[in-house]
């Protein structure tokens, strides 16, 4: 099978990836969920004019002259409005968040007055509207403030609560099952035997999927045996996974059995091998409603492919309005050589010059097994197939990695 261009591979992964069914959740469970409907304010905020400071509610005309004295006829606190109205020569003691009483059109802060029993003397002239939050200054009933397809932040949740929504309609979380393969893998904290390595891929993949709002299922490590890999695939289906991610076993060696196991389980393969570096031996197919992505075993290849393909798929299934990674313009911080037929994703650090120019500095070693360089990188520097040699200062494009 010929190497597939990255853009075609991504299109294949996203084909048919419609948003998952809607469900209604409480605000406590809505963080990072994706809205399936616009959210409309059910109330006006603030519902009445409110004081922004502690002081006295007055008629500005009565307090426009320094030295004016006013009679204090009552008090307003948050949640305890004043029943009467402010007339000529009168003031009402008011605290932050209190409803401005009828007749008043300004608040004089307490530091600008001298209190003497039931009277105050003005030390700073009042200005109409000063220190008052008008009704509806935040939002008004009927305003659409959160849009369908938005992934909810903690600030969005506060806004939804203020709009008087205790529940929100969101897409169901995608369920991502992750299956590692390889006799050589041992868990962190154990002592690897001769020829063994510590398993690391899954920790990045689980965290990356969860950061995009997905639920993950850990299928563990399958031995390099066809029956073990097949059992893992079946467990993924039984779990109700929307996506199965496998790591390792995607190459052509005698012990790379993932592709065979997928075919034996009737997975309809869309592609195997992509024209990209790192990550050439990535696979994709479908098993009924479950999408399958077979990632390479090398940790950098695994992560880069997951970032480029799994993340947009999760976003599509979640109903996100923005699915694709945003490419930013930068300049090279060092020379890079000519590229071959594969699209290259170089791990790079980012710097910003005083003039705002973004500078991408590829790490010195780009081997797909080097976790330290991956952890140090802040972006992927994208090099098109057959790109010529480029010198320091040349324009380039980068994809920022999650922070």
What would you note in describing this structure?
The structure is a single chain. This protein is α/β, with parallel strands linked by helices and 403 residues long. It has 4 domains: 162 residues, Molybdenum Cofactor Biosythetic Enzyme, Chain A; 58 residues, Molybdopterin biosynthesis moea protein, domain 2 (Alpha-Beta Complex); 84 residues, Molybdopterin biosynthesis moeA protein, domain 3 (Beta Complex); 74 residues, MoeA, C-terminal, domain IV (Beta-clip), CATH 2.40.340. It is built from 7 helices and 26 strands. The strands form 7 sheets. The protein has a 6-stranded mixed sheet with strand order 7-4-6-5-9-8, with no helix packed on it. It has a 6-stranded mixed sheet with strand order 16-13-17-21-20-18, with helices on both faces. Strand 20 and strand 21 form a beta hairpin. Helix 1 crosses helix 6 and helix 4 packs across helix 5. The longest helix is centred in the C-terminal third of the chain and has 20 residues.
């Amino acid at each position: 099978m010929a190497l597939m261009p990255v853009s075609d591979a991504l299109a294949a992964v996203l084909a048919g990836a419609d948003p998952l069914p809607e469900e209604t959740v409480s605000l406590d469970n809505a963080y990072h969920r994706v809205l399936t409907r616009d959210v409309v304010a059910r109330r006006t905020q603030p519902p009445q004019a409110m004081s922004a400071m502690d002081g006295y509610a007055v008629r500005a005309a009565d307090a426009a002259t320094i030295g004016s004295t006013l009679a204090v006829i009552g008090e307003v606190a948050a949640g305890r409005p004043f029943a009467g109205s402010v007339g000529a020569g009168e003031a009402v003691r008011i605290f932050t968040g209190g409803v401005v009483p009828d007749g008043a059109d300004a608040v004089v802060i307490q530091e600008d007055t001298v209190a003497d029993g039931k009277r105050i003397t003005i030390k700073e002239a009042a200005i109409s509207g000063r220190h008052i939050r008008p009704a509806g200054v935040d939002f008004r009933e009927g305003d659409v403030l959160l849009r369908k397809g938005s992934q909810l932040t903690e600030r969005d949740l506060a806004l939804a609560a203020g709009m008087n929504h205790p529940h929100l309609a969101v897409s169901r979380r995608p369920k991502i099952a992750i299956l590692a393969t390889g006799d050589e893998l041992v868990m962190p904290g154990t002592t690897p035997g001769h020829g063994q390595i510590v398993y690391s891929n899954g920790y990045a993949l689980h965290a990356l999927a969860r950061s995009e709002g997905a639920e993950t299922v850990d299928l563990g490590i399958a031995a390099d045996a066809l029956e073990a890999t097949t059992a893992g695939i079946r467990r993924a289906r039984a779990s109700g996974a929307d996506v199965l991610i496998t790591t390792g076993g995607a190459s052509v060696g005698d012990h790379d059995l993932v592709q065979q196991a997928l075919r034996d389980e009737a997975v309809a393969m869309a592609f195997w091998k992509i024209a990209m570096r790192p990550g050439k031996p990535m696979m994709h197919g479908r098993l009924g409603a479950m999408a399958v992505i077979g990632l390479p075993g090398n940790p950098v290849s695994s992560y880069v492919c997951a970032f480029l393909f799994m993340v947009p798929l999760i976003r599509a299934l979640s109903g996100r309005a923005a699915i694709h990674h945003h490419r930013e313009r930068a300049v090279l911080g060092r020379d890079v050589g000519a590229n071959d037929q594969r699209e290259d994703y170089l791990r790079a650090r980012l710097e910003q010059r005083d003039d705002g120019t973004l500078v991408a500095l590829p790490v010195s070693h780009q081997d797909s097994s080097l976790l330290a360089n991956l952890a140090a990188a802040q972006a992927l520097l994208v090099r098109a197939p057959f790109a010529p040699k480029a010198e320091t200062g040349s324009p380039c494009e980068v994809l920022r990695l999650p922070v």
